[in-house]
Design brief:
By secondary structure, the protein is α+β, with helices and mostly antiparallel strands. Helix content is 48%, strand content 17%. It has helices at residues 21-36, 51-81, 139-152, 212-215, 218-225, 257-264, 272-305, 313-323, 330-356, 363-377, 387-401, 408-428, 438-447; strands spanning 2-7, 12-19, 86-92, 108-116, 130-136, 156-157, 167-174, 181-187, 207-211, 239-250, 431-437. The strands form three sheets. Strands 6, 7, 8, 9 and 10 form a five-stranded antiparallel sheet that branches. Strands 1-2-4-3 form a four-stranded antiparallel sheet, with helices on both faces.
């Protein structure tokens, strides 16, 4: 067997493979013998069909299968052994009039088109400093958070008559244009301002009539009716009647011990000052996570910007078109191609960093990550869960990773791998701490 790589550019090459009969014949002979021991044929006892007859009937198909298997293995082994930065899949190249004659020939030449990334090395010293944003959560963020908590943990009560902001429960009935009915709840703060007076002063048993589209926006109508978007709502026209069954109002939550306990846990805060400090710590921690997520993206972009990686654009576009079997037009692939290229380059860079730094992912690390996800999902925080609970968590995690249909192992493996590469990358880069307000940070991320 002869294998040769002919590069036409930094990103395109032809892999040529010449097969001789001795490269595949021993495997073909072996398979024919195995067939003769298994095949059922009229006139012969099972397992006693002569090899010559099996060869005559099945020899060609067996030969084709073995040649194809040998080709696939040879291509894969050559790429792996030579560490070729292949992108996409090798594509068999056949001349328009070329026909492989397996009846007469025993020697065959095959050519595969290969797309590759150009050579590159990651040099962290050439990466520009990356801004590390420190989000400054202050009085405004603290007050907004406490106001949201007061709404969330407010005691509910049932007033005699309704006001704007109440939740009104009852029966909604179409009285003209159709016969739609449902039991629902109307959040009066979602009523259009010019119609809110209609829902003020209602009591149990009150009946109010209104036009649905004049009273609510489209999103609220979906919630009120439970209908599907872009299908049923446009069909609902005319007047509606609503009969009040109940009214619910959220009371104010004063900053007292009962409220502190609801938010933070019993006796975690004993006065307003300690309560606000702990809430601000939580708010700040949330923004730290947001800043960390942006830092990771910015670090990846900085590394990519320091590199000049060429890709075989047309080869990849054609490959994507074939892989998706007509699901996308070439025009659609063109539109998304730059984003695809960036993702592909980032994957190549991560693999290069991992190889250079000898970063490996072991099964124990994947299992530990899965266990951690299980703990978070069930609200098991801390490390001391007890032997029996730890065993339960591990069993659930092992079952999760064993689900091959959803490929959970690969998903978790990739997560651990990405985290390892990110951690190592951050240890090699230069960061510039940059204070920023919450508003400016949110504005920046929306514009990105």
């Amino acid at each position: 067997m002869e294998v040769a790589l002919e590069k036409s550019s930094a990103t395109n090459a032809l892999l040529k493979i010449s097969l001789k009969e001795e490269d595949y014949q021993s495997e073909v002979t072996k398979k024919i013998k195995e067939y003769s021991g298994k095949v059922a044929m009229k006139g012969f006892r099972p397992g006693k069909v002569p090899v010559g007859i099996v060869k005559k009937m099945y020899g060609k198909s067996i030969m084709i299968d073995e040649v194809n298997n040998l080709l696939s293995k040879t291509v894969a082994d050559y790429i792996k052994e030579n560490k070729l930065p292949v992108v996409g899949d090798p594509v068999p190249k056949l001349d328009e009039n070329e026909v492989l004659d397996f009846d007469r020939n025993t020697e065959f030449d095959f050519t595969f088109e290969i797309g590759m990334a150009s050579d590159f090395e990651v040099d962290f010293s050439k990466v520009a400093p990356v801004k590390k944003y420190v989000i400054e959560a202050g009085e405004k963020e603290l007050n907004d958070t406490i106001a949201n908590l007061q709404t969330r943990f407010a005691e509910q009560f049932n007033p005699e008559s309704s006001e704007v902001g109440d939740m009104i429960y009852g029966d909604l009935k179409q009285v003209s244009g159709g016969d739609f009915t449902t039991k629902t709840a109307i959040p009066t703060d979602k009523v259009k301002p010019e119609m809110q007076a209609v829902f003020v002063g209602l009591t149990q048993g009150s009946v109010v009539e209104f036009d649905l589209h004049s009273t609510f926006d489209e999103e609220s109508i979906y919630l009120l009716t439970g209908l599907k978007k872009q299908a049923d709502v446009p069909l609902i026209e005319g007047q509606f009647e609503f009969t009040v069954e109940d009214i619910t109002r959220a009371g104010d939550s004063s900053l007292n011990q009962a409220f502190f306990d609801k938010v933070l846990g019993k006796d975690k805060a004993t006065d307003e000052e300690s309560f606000k400090k702990q809430v601000l710590d939580v708010v700040s921690e949330n923004y730290v996570r947001e800043a960390t997520a942006k830092l990771r993206i910015d670090a990846e972009n900085a590394v990519l910007d320091s590199l000049d990686i060429e890709l075989p654009d047309q080869f990849l576009k054609d490959w994507l078109f074939r892989q998706n079997e007509g699901k996308f037009t070439m025009e659609q692939i063109e539109e998304e191609f730059e984003a695809f290229k960036k993702t592909l380059k980032l994957s190549l860079v991560k693999n290069k960093i991992a190889e250079a730094a000898n970063l490996n992912v072991e099964y124990a690390e994947v299992l530990a990550e899965s266990e951690n996800q299980i703990r978070q999902q069930f609200g098991f925080y801390g490390n001391d869960l007890g032997e029996q609970m730890e065993a339960t968590v591990r069993k659930i995690a092992q079952g999760y990773l064993a689900d091959k249909e959803r490929d959970n192992f690969r998903t978790t493996y990739n997560m651990v791998f990405d985290n390892k590469v990110a951690e190592y990358t951050n240890s090699q880069l230069v960061f510039e701490e940059t204070p920023i307000s919450v508003d400016d940070f949110q504005k920046m991320t929306k514009e990105a």
